[in-house]
Structure to design on (528 residues):
């Protein structure tokens, strides 16, 4: 009797704690686990960005429609000592507009970019995370370099300038998880929170994991995406060493392409369980339907068509889509000799005859390669394709390359209705991550 | 001077390819010596450091570079030219 009573008390107090927002319910009330294999549907209900094309989603999409290039002469200390002096740098960046003095001391540029994008995304979603929702919400972000500007500035101080003292916040500022932690603090996201670093695929890996968590019921809302702020002397100098950077332009898939161009910025999205979003009448930007990862297990820098293809077909299979339902692919499309021909071979082999019917563009030609943040900004082109029926172009395209024989939407945006799309990311280290989205 | 440059380049390439310097003949291509694209970029860096020169080489368009990497002979000739330009 007393045993029954005590367990009843425990259940009662747990319910009270759930109501008070202290303890998370196992699965949120009203969530639907009756879908495909007990998996829940995941939709995007908010988006935010800052990158070389604009400081928000609307201006970025406008640039995509216009085929505008954000690549310019780089502007930072010691740039004259670089042999690569172009990049897609965020223009007119004034952190004091968004952050107070104390925050600026604590936030590296990659965290500043992330917070700005996250605030836009959350504001757009209309979500508030007080109470129980905060316990069922989290954040997974991608970055490759983390607080690279902070490393660069402080190494300069101690090595070049001979200083023997650094600011007390150097470590909390440069750590790769700083952005994810600040996002969790800003909005009170008390569920899963961490950072993924898989070079150029970081954001896609992050968003794929966030998608899986919401789909599987581990969270109801996840903020996800990524950011990068590598455009500083040390960041670009390191890349110069590989001799894969272009000195003049990013021309993906064009026969005269001569390398990649780095960019910077962030993209953050609100991934929400479908019934949760529907119940509150949220605007749905797109549905995330599939994700797959693969590893080439082959070479630290040279990509493998087979590895890429396994991620592409895996994402389509995970989404339960047919090959011919995919109308658009946002390519990894770095503009290097190696990536572009390998990616085209992978897509051609994966899709067979349908490869001739689908469009594949590289928006890196406009916003540059944001390394660990690139998949997040590129997801905007996928959302634009699904929601607005506008396919962002590959700009800078000048000469056809027989090894890149797909429809790469050269130079001008195109109005075409598409029902399902993919976003490719293939990282150094042979790590591939592909996301599938569908129109709602 | 020329022989000295040739020997020093051979030593660099031999180390990269894990061969003996005499196996690095003028006719040998990087491929013949088992040097892949990353190994080539590494070798060019080592040559730049050895001779304190800057070699114009973009891995995306090796054929368009002034630095001809067809074989060891062309690489040695190009390095000789860059060293002469530096000293001149």
């Amino acid at each position: 009797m007393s045993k029954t009573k005590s367990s009843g008390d425990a259940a009662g107090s747990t319910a009270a704690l759930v109501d008070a927002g202290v303890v998370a319910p196992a699965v949120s009330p009203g969530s639907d686990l009756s879908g495909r294999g007990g998996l829940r549907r995941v939709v995007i209900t908010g988006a935010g960005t800052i990158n070389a094309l604009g400081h928000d989603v609307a201006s970025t999409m406008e640039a995509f429609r216009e085929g505008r290039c954000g690549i310019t002469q780089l502007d930072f200390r010691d740039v004259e000592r670089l042999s690569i002096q172009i990049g897609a740098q965020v223009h007119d960046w004034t952190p004091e507009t968004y952050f107070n003095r104390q925050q600026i001391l604590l936030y590296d540029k990659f965290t500043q970019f992330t917070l700005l994008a996250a605030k836009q995304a959350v504001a757009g979603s209309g979500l508030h995370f007080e109470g129980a929702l905060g316990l069922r919400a989290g954040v997974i972000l991608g970055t490759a370099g983390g607080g690279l500007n902070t490393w660069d500035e402080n190494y300069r101080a101690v090595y070049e300038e001979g200083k023997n003292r650094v600011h007390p916040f150097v470590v909390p500022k440069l750590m790769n998880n700083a952005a994810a932690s600040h996002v969790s603090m800003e909005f009170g996201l008390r569920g899963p929170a961490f950072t993924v670093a898989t070079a150029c695929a970081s954001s896609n890996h992050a968003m794929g994991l966030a998608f899986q968590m919401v789909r599987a019921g581990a969270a109801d809302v996840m903020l996800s995406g990524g950011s990068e702020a590598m455009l500083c002397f040390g960041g670009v100098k390191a890349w110069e060493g590989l001799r894969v950077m272009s000195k003049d332009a990013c021309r993906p898939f064009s026969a005269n392409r001569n390398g990649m161009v780095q960019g910077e910025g962030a993209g953050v999205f609100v991934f929400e369980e479908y019934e949760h979003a529907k119940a509150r009448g949220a605007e749905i930007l797109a549905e995330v339907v599939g994700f797959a990862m693969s590893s080439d297990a082959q070479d630290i820098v040279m990509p493998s068509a087979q590895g890429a293809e396994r991620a592409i077909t895996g994402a389509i299979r995970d989404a339960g889509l047919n090959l011919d339902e995919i109308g658009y692919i946002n390519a990894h499309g770095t503009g290097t000799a190696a990536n572009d021909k390998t990616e085209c071979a992978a897509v051609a082999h994966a899709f067979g005859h349908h490869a001739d019917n689908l469009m594949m563009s590289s928006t890196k030609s406009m916003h540059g390669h944001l390394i660990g943040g690139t998949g997040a900004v590129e997801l905007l082109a996928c959302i634009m394709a699904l929601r607005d029926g506008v396919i962002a172009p590959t700009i800078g395209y000048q000469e056809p390359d027989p090894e890149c024989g797909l429809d790469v939407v050269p130079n001008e945006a195109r109005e075409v209705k598409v029902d399902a799309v993919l976003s490719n990311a293939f990282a150094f280290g042979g790590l591939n991550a592909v996301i599938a989205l569908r129109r709602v | 001077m020329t022989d000295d440059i040739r020997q020093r380049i051979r030593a660099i390439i031999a180390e990269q390819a894990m061969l003996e310097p005499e196996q690095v003949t003028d006719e040998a291509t990087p491929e013949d010596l088992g040097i892949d694209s990353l190994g080539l970029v590494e070798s060019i860096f080592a040559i730049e450091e050895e001779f304190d020169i800057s070699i114009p080489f973009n891995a995306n368009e090796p054929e368009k570079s002034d630095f001809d990497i067809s074989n060891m002979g062309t690489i040695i000739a190009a390095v000789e030219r860059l060293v002469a330009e530096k000293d001149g």
Notes: The domain at 42-438 of chain A is CATH 3.40.47.10 (Peroxisomal Thiolase; Chain A, domain 1). Chain A touches chain B through 18 residues (CB under 8 Å). The CA atoms of residues 190 and 300 of chain A lie 36 Å apart. Chain A has one domain: 42-438.
